[in-house]
Protein 1
Amino acid sequence: MMSLAEIQGESEIVVMREFDAPREMVFAAWADPKQLAQWFGPEGFTTTIESFDFREGGEWAMVMHGPDGTNYPSSILFTEITPPELIAYFQRGGRAGADEIAFQSTVTFEEIGRQKTRLTIRMEFASGEERDETERDYKAIEGGRQTLNRLAMFLTKRGVAA
């Protein structure tokens, strides 16, 4: 299944994809910084993880590096973690030198079969205007799709169909 992404509600973006992989494996790809660094971000991007404290109240500092050399530093505060079902976090960041964007994300991992997982990312912005600016300036919908496609390729390399 290709990933689905769309604007929902007044101030949300939702990205979803199904994986032919156990929920625990998909969750681990988000919970382990060594795995995250191999797939996180849109096509052509690389990610440097500066720190990663995977616990409620813990922080994740990273820089995504665009294919054109632009850096996108982000600071993430984990607000809720329920293995292997849910990761929620508040993210601040954006293009280096530009106005900061901020949003709350909730990532759910739904077991939909013995070896099948539906992953849903719900990004909630303070307003529809902030959501629309993020989509316009950062192509968040397409970036979300590409990020989950990269996760699928990573899981396939690990020996499961995604």
Protein 2
Amino acid sequence: MMPVIDIYALKQRWKLFLFIAAVAIGASSLWYTDRLVNKLSEKEKKKASIWAEATRILLESSQSETDLNFLFKVIEDNNTVPVILTDQDDKILYYRNLDDVKAKRPEYISQQLESMKKLHPPLVIDFGNGRRNYIYYKESILLQQLSIYPYLQLSVIIIFIIISYVAFNSSRKAEQNKVWLGLSRETAHQLGTPASSLMAWIEILKEKVEDQTLVSELEKDVQRLNIITERFSKIGSQPKLEIVNLVEVIEDVVKYMQTRTPKSVTIVFNPDNHQIFLPLNVNLLGWVIENLIKNALDAVTNEGKIEIKVSTNNKQSFIDVIDNGRGILKRNFNKVFKPGFTTKTRGWGLGLSLTKRIIEEYHRGKIFVLRSEINKGTTFRIVIPIR
């Protein structure tokens, strides 16, 4: 197994650290608020119990005027906990701290009573002789708001993280676009000068060399160099797409690669349909196929085989590049398209990244690892919409 170089591993660890930190903050907030809510709930329950006892004593009306004033004060001081007083037949005798506007509708009080019954068992006021009153209650508005506060806080944190992540990715993508544009234009400029010079030398060789076979092969390579220069010049800008035959584009690349592939490796391309017309940029899509074939060549060993399949339906066309090489670990299926990720000791990890950019940004398609098994092979799939 070749060593894997992943320059994004540290960044992934930082993302994991930030995620764990956010979860820890949210969990701590939920835990602390839950404790606080439970404490306040117990206090409100005690408050409701005191209110029930004061109501019982007041209803017995056997206290002195001073005691009655105190009891009235206890009852009036409950201005937070919603309570409903009923008799043993569930007839509502009194209520407090409910919505005054809605309370004018009898069904509202009944609905509140049913809700309170589900939340807490009633506080019983026993007058003896089988006569009882019941006090039902629920948490105050403040306690209800406090109980949902940590979820609101957690939602705000999550939204903030999402917005920050999207903004960071957009900024990074814009910066990458500038780097790609600058790098590609500079590369195209650097390649253009020697390519033009070589073309001039070829014309001189045509006149002075009798055997034109060598000159012809040299001319093909220089033409290839011009194609590569053009490819780099298109990276970073929106290329022009033209309706062309996909099969012919792939055939041209396969023919070129077959002459430059070891005899121990076989490249097979037998399309079922020879007429698949799509809006494509010929140079860039040819670059994609070439990169995938080179990637497969790096993966295969002796008796290697690379097969290219093309299929289509009413909406999409599919290109599968299949090899019988060393395979890719499942955890690396997405990583192989990231800049800097490579399994080659001398690789830069840019080939598949460029491939993904060309397919997804310029052709509005998708590229992914369809399947792979260690020491059995890999299948890359390209999906291009038919527009």
Protein 3
Amino acid sequence: MDVDFARAADSGFVHARAVIEAESRLAELRRDEWQRLGLGALALGASLAITAAYEPLVAPLFFGGMALWLLGIRSLWRRWDLVDRLADDRDAYVISAVRAYAARDARMDRRHTNAASLRCWAAEADLTEVVGDLEQLARDLEDADLALSPACAIVCRRLLTDPVVSPLLNGGLADHLHETIVEIERGFSAVPKTAS
């Protein structure tokens, strides 16, 4: 089921119905995660508490609790994976979990980290035709007077970390590096000044 949502997100063409279904699936995975982790903790606690009272129940409760914890961690992973894939589709930003996930990449601390990585690439890689573009992007990322849209922050992170889609990390996509930088640059806007 998650694969269908992931394919829709990967295609970059999530329709309104698919977004609603994805949001429902995220809520379902969140419920599964909490229920399984909670029941697992309860079973593990019960296995410890019952040790002195009735020893034959200790092992079943312990192993049952561990199994529920593993299922809870699986739900947590599946939810994270779905949110990560949906973050590549701007239509999915109506989902609060996707918007919040992407907004973390637009924070200044992450922008500073990305700027440092871009400067390393500009200094070490054989990218003479785009060194100026990489340097400019690094300066813009460090500029606190510029806001970066969460969607473009995700594109920037993928540029630096995802060898499947990154023109920096995937030589087969090197021709698209300038386009990717331009796409990220389009996500910058002036931070509104507050009245004092």
